[in-house]
Write a structure and sequence with these properties.
The complex is a heterodimer of chains A (109) and B (112).
Chain A: E1 3-5, E2 9-13, E3 18-25, E4 29-37, E5 44-49, E6 53-57, E7 60-65, E8 70-75, E9 84-92, E10 96-99, E11 103-108
Parallel strand pairs in A: 2-11
Antiparallel strand pairs in A: 1-3, 3-8, 4-5, 4-9, 6-7, 7-8, 9-10, 9-11
Chain B: E1 4-7, E2 10-13, E3 19-25, E4 31-38, E5 42-51, E6 54-57, E7 65-66, E8 76-78, E9 87-94, E10 102-103, E11 107-111
Parallel strand pairs in B: 2-11
Antiparallel strand pairs in B: 1-3, 3-8, 4-5, 4-9, 5-6, 7-8, 9-10, 9-11
Classes of the chains: A mainly beta (109), B mainly beta (112).
């Protein structure tokens, strides 16, 4: 089956850097996505890695190592509005998308 | 405005009473999916569709049905709801595998 593991919770202060790791076991793996979800809201897309390496989008970066079945999301210059849950998700054949359990990020002043 | 809409947003029903949650997207996306979200379990894919009349099971399809007769609509059908289907449901659409998934606002379902 498909499974993704990520930490359940991370706490950091404003201005800090947080790295959320995600390890996956997925057959027919295409790529790794990251989504942000605020309490009471819908998930919103942050990034997608199909190839090994680092993708940078503003304060957020995402990394993938296919050989290690591992990726991470890097949140820099943390702001209070970054307090949310973050999900990694593995794409496989068709439109099959398997999500990790989510990492709750709490940003403190 | 590009969006995915779901109806209803909230629903309380009783065991065994058939219900349908509608999903519609205005972005001409080929791919659509349904997910349920439960505390501690993240989002789990119920069904997905790669195009009109093409649907496939996700990770938790038991107790659900879908149809894709038109590109823009992808309704989720619970023929005989049970309390273990109480959950938060999201519909999503995208242009293709790995492309950005656009999620609807969610439907919170309570089955008594």
């Amino acid at each position: 089956g498909q499974s993704l593991e990520q930490p359940s919770e991370v706490t950091a202060v404003e201005g800090a850097i947080v790295q959320i790791n995600c390890t996956y076991q997925t057959s027919g793996f295409y790529g790794l996505s990251w989504y942000q979800q605020h309490d009471g809201g819908a998930p919103t897309f942050l990034s997608y890695n199909a190839l090994d390496g680092l993708e940078e989008t503003g304060r957020f970066s995402s990394f993938l190592s296919r050989s290690d079945s591992y990726g991470y999301l890097l949140l820099q210059e943390l702001q209070m509005k970054d307090s949310a849950s973050y999900f990694c998700a593995a794409s496989s054949s068709g439109n099959k998308l398997t999500f990790g359990g989510g990492t709750r990020v709490l940003v403190k002043p | 405005e590009a969006q995915v809409t779901q109806n209803p947003r909230y629903l309380i029903t009783v065991t065994g009473k058939k219900l349908t949650v509608t999903c519609s997207q205005n972005m001409n996306h080929e791919y659509m999916s349904w997910y349920r979200q439960d505390p501690g379990l993240g989002l789990r894919q119920i069904y997905y569709s790669m195009n009109v009349e093409v649907t496939d099971k996700g990770d938790v399809p038991e107790g659900y049905k879908v149809s894709r007769k038109e590109k823009r609509n992808f309704p989720l059908i619970l023929e005989s709801p049970s309390p273990n289907q109480t959950s938060l449901y999201f519909c999503a659409s995208s242009r293709g595998n790995g492309e950005t998934q656009y999620f609807g606002p969610g439907t919170r379902l309570l089955v008594l």
